[in-house]
Fold this sequence. Notes:
Elements: H1 2-19, E1 35-39, E2 44-49, E3 52-59, E4 62-65, E5 76-78, E6 92-99, E7 110-113, E8 122-131, E9 134-138, H2 141-148, H3 154-165, E10 182-184, E11 195-199, E12 202-208, E13 217-226, E14 231-242
Amino acid sequence: MRLKSLLVVWVLFVFLLVFGCVQQPPTTTKSSTTETKITTSTQTTTTTAPGGAQEFCDYFGQKLPCSDELPKWGCSFREPSKSLDSLSPRYSLMKCSRLENASRTSEGVMQYNGTGLLAGRRFFIDYVAYRDGGFELIDSKDKFRTIFAPVEFREEALAFLAAFTGYEPVYEVDHLKNLTRGTYKVDMSEINLATVDETPTGYRITTLTEYGPCVDEIYKKIFSVTRSGDVKEVRSALIWESDRKPSCIS
């Protein structure tokens, strides 16, 4: 009986020695290789992936990689015209406004003169595109054409017009027919919606300049946009003039 008891104890000892010392796999919690953190105060998104982390910033509703390059261009960034969404190829764009300075060498995509308190100051409009994994400054019409020409559709012609001149097509003209404190220079029948007509060399765009703060005159303008991306003003006619010029302090 004693021998039998010793045998049972020996068997239990061996069992515990073999199976009790086997290391069990640790309890794990399912996790993703990508961690997303959104900070509402800075509008940034951080994505952690194998091999490193990438931080994204919100540029006018566009989630793009944050970059230390952007400040070096000295831009006052603005949201670009919605017309530029029709450009091909399609890139994320930001409008870059910069004051003229002596070190400036490029012509800019567009130039304009300040009004009101900024009268006498000249500004340049450039664009910053996110393409090929980085930000690129587009600071001349030639660069713009190299990327986005040829102009193959009406929408692209309107995009080039907006980028090179700042003019947008006017599709609502009732407010322009009821302006006060001014004189109309044409018959109301000549105040029409914007039109885009195809020509042998590209497109012909007829539009009106908009009314707003510091606007003393409204013009009907005709532009030609070639398929190679050249934008030229063909005709400009005054249709309304304010009786209280200048409307802004200069």
